[in-house]
Each structure stands twice: as structure tokens, then as C-alpha cells.
Amino acid sequence: MPKDTLSLSVTAPKGLARPAWVALIATLLAAWLIAKALLMPQGGWSDAITFGLIVAGLVLTWRVWLGKTSARLGLGLVAMVAVLALLTALPFNPVKGAGSFEGVILLLLGIGQLRAYLDRQNIKAQIERALSHPWVRRSAWPIFMLYSALAFFLSLATVPIVGSLTRSTRLNHLYHLRLAMRAVCATMFIAPTTAGAAAVSAMFPGLGWSQALLAGLPLALMCLLLTRSEKEPALAPMPLEQDGAGHGLLLPLVIFIGVIVGGKLLLGLATVTTVALAVSITGGVSLLVNYGIGQLATVIGEGFERSSAEILLFIACGTLQVALAAPQTVQVLGGLDGAGVALLSAAPLQLLVILGLLPLLTVVGVHPMILFAAAFPVLHPLTPLPVALEYQAWMAMFVISQLISPVSISAVTAAASVHESPWRVSIQSHGGFALAFAVGGVGYLWAMA
């Protein structure tokens, strides 16, 4: 079977080939998550369907995700919660854990679809033409803004696209990669279009987008102001080979804006749900209209395989959060002495822990999602911060971690796109920026609180 062709017909007595089964199950999962988000069915049975489809896909793709660090961390986390559940009264509920992050999982699948469509539209050639304009190359700020705009559609995929593009030109690829990583992080304060930002947003379903945006704009601006503004050496880029693809970018733009407006203004959906729907529907409809149902299913299947390790990690983190948010755990925390509670309830200490201590732990190899899943249920009930500021504090934790942690998705994909070590594109490239941003972020959030 050719790689880019999906055949749903039985061609052998054994039935469908494994890639076709993965494509079928992943397509059903994406369709179910979209339907669930729009129709909002309640009850454990809907989470069970989500969990069953995910497990079926993971079973078929185990050879892909088993060797990835994030998947092994997820398996270890699930095992740890299961052991604790056997030894204590903590609940073990991976079904509910999967339901906690289903918006994030839909976003991951949607990013894969939209990225595949834009690849077919030769988006790299358009980026290169934009980068070659003299006004754009005058300083880092126009490039930063360009990559920020791309991040609203491509999310973290912006980073490897910029890396692979600039590496094939005479442009300074590490310079552009650094700007792309920071630009993507800046967008996290504006809209949850990355997996980490969506995970935080999922914990604040009642927070209005306007409230979060007002609190986050100064932090996004801080990312821009702290970005180095020296001019890149004037080197003419080498043109990429054209593949003859059209530049059909108007269709996805119209769909994306339409879903965002409809989801927020007409349906009143949560921010993470609206963004996940916008990305997935935009990518799905664009592929369907231009390339047909076969290509759409193939792309969704390939996207599930690519994201299978992260999907497993999100289920594990959801399972941990369900356990830590249980009444039994709350009672244990309530048993702390008054001094301990007062210390944990102090806004300056919480901000230092969230923006300082937790990102440092990610540098030594602890995945940011695991830290968030473990720390949020503990600190959230004790926080004195207003909800919008607490939301942006956790967002800042993910931003700093994405930049300095060698195990973050951003660093790993960035390193792979330019064939460098994750350490070089993370802490070595962003250490000073992250320190300055952490200090400024703590000061801003403390002052606002």
C-alpha cells in the first residue's frame, strides 16, 4: 500500500493493514471528540468511549511510542498511581483522566491535520519569501511577530518548520529557531493553541477568554521586549525547490476564524475547546475539500502515531490529577499545620515555586506536564491569586519550561529539525532570557495580585 494512499477495502484474508486500522480508529476518535465538544454529552459513558478509542489506537501503535521518553514517563506515572491506589484510598480512574484532557488530545490531532495541509500548500516557500524581505530582516521583532502569527495556526509545529526551513538556506538557523521558540511561547499567554497551554486552560473552564487575555498581554509583550533585537547578518537565502502546490491559505483562514467566533460567541464554549475545534475542523475540512476522505483519514492516522506518546502522557497526567483532586487527598492537605498552610498560601512563595522551582526541575529531566499534574492540585486550593493571574502563572511555568528544558516537546522537535542537541537549543539558547522573564513575571503577577 503506498504511503499516501488509504484503502479501506479488504485486500487480503487478514483484513485491513495496521496503518488502515490506525487511520480508521484515529478518524473515529477525532470525529467523536468534535461531536462531544459540540453536543456536550454528559456522563462517564462518554469518557469511556474516548478512553476505549485511545487505547485501541495505542495498542496498534505501541512500536512507535514505546521507545519515546514521554511514553515511558506516562507508563511509569500510571503504574505509580495504580500502586498508590492499592496501598491507600486514592482513586485510580484513567477513564476520567482521559476525559480531563480530551480537548488537548483533539488539539494534537488537529495540529497534525492543519500542518499536513499547509505542507501541501508549500508553506515553507512562503515563509522564506517573507523572511527575505529587507523590512522583516531589519531586526528580530518583525520576525518574532511573523512566527507568532504562524503559531496561532501551526502551534508547536512552527518550531520544526522554521528549523528545517532555515537550515536549508544561508540564514542563521539557530537565530531563527531561537526566535520561533520564544514567539510560540508568547502566544500561549494569548490563546491556548499549544498542548501545554491547552492543559492549563482545561483546568480553568470558567475563566473567560477576555480576562485571560488582559492578564496575559503584558507577559506576551515581555517576551517580545526581552527578545534580542540585533540585526541578522544580511545573507541572501537559497531558494527552495517548488513542488507546484497551490497556495490555498484563504480557506483555512476563513474556517478558523469562523469556528473561533461561533464557538465563543454563539455556543459559549471554553477557550481550550474552541481552539481545539478551530484547529481540527480547519485542518480536516481543508484536507477533505482539496484531497478527499482517503487522504484525510491517512493524515489523521499518521498524526495519531506521531502524537501517541504525548497522548499516553496526557492520560497518565489526567489519572494523577484525578487522584490528587480526590476528597481523600484534600483531607490530607487540610491536616497540615497552620504554619504550613500559611506558607503555601503566600502569593510570593507560590509564584516563586511556579515560575522558579518547577521550571528548574524540568532542566534535570522532569517533564513539565508531570510537574503540572502533580503540583496544580496541591497549590490550586491554597492559592490567594485571582483566577486570571493564577492561570497566567501556570502558563508562565510552561513557557519557561518549554524554553529551558531539554525534554520539552519544543526543545526536542527544535533539536531534531536542525540536527543539534536538545541541550543546545534549550538552556544554552534561552537560559538568560528565561531568568529575566521569570524575575519580570513574578514581579508583574505579584504586583497585580
Describe the structure.
By secondary structure, the protein is mostly helical. The chain has one domain. The protein is 74% helix and 0% strand. It is built from 22 helices and no strands. Helix 4 crosses helix 14 and helix 12 crosses helix 22. It is globular, with a radius of gyration of 22 Å.
Largest sheet descriptor: none
**What's the overall average pLDDT, rounded?**
83
The helix content is over 70%
Question: C-alpha Rg, in Å?
Answer: 22 Å
Q: Give the tally of structural domains.
A: 1
Termini separation: 59 Å
Structural class computed from helices and strand pairing: mainly alpha
Number of strands: 0
Please state the overall shape, judged from the principal axes of the Cα atoms: globular
Alpha plus pi helix count: 22
Low-confidence stretches: 1-13, 235-247
In short:
The chain is mostly helical. The chain has helices spanning 18-39, 44-60, 62-65, 69-87, 94-100, 102-120, 123-131, 140-154, 158-167, 173-188, 195-202, 209-226, 250-266, 271-324, 327-334, 338-344, 347-363, 368-379, 387-404, 409-418, 422-425, 427-448. It is built from 22 helices and no strands.
Give the topology.
Elements (H helix, E strand, L loop, with lengths): L17 H22 L4 H17 L1 H4 L3 H19 L6 H7 L1 H19 L2 H9 L8 H15 L3 H10 L5 H16 L6 H8 L6 H18 L23 H17 L4 H54 L2 H8 L3 H7 L2 H17 L4 H12 L7 H18 L4 H10 L3 H4 L1 H22 L1
Search tags:
449 residues, mainly alpha, disordered N terminus
